[in-house]
Amino acid sequence: MSDLGNREIFSKNLQYYMNLYNKTRIQVAKDIGVSYTTFTSWIKGTNYPRIDKIELLANYFRVNKADLIENKYSENEQYYNDPSVSEYAQAIKDNPDLRLLFDASKDMSKDDINFVINTIEMLKKREGK
């Protein structure tokens, strides 16, 4: 794979985890101790970070380094095994309060997802939130 391909894959994966954790470029750059311009060059796919910076980012997002540098999903591959769940899951993913719950839940049924959401809502009501 070309360096350009690596940079594009890394950029997409980095953007995915930033969105998942609702982080800005400024926040991540500051938190890992790199300049904003350096971090922005990674996001844009202009530059590729050294392995020590990839490791910092993996630790920051609590993922494996491979999650940042490998293309895990082809363009045509569906994330969810049950196609009927896909649209419902997308709505949940778009909700910042719920999307972290379903990062690794591609085998869940719609009923399982509803159960988790209802449990969370019940606990929030019980705690007065």
Textual characterization of the structure:
There is one protein chain. With 129 residues, the chain is mainly α. It folds into two domains: 3-69, 434 Repressor (Amino-terminal Domain), CATH 1.10.260; 83-126, no CATH class. It contains seven helices and no strands. α2 packs across α3. It is elongated and about 45 Å long. The termini are far apart.
Q: Over the alpha carbons, how many angstroms does the gyration radius reach?
A: 17 Å
CATH class of the largest domain: Mainly Alpha
CATH topological fold name of the largest domain: 434 Repressor (Amino-terminal Domain)
User: Quick one: how many beta strands?
Assistant: 0
Largest sheet data: none
User: What is the CATH architecture descriptor of the largest domain?
Assistant: Orthogonal Bundle
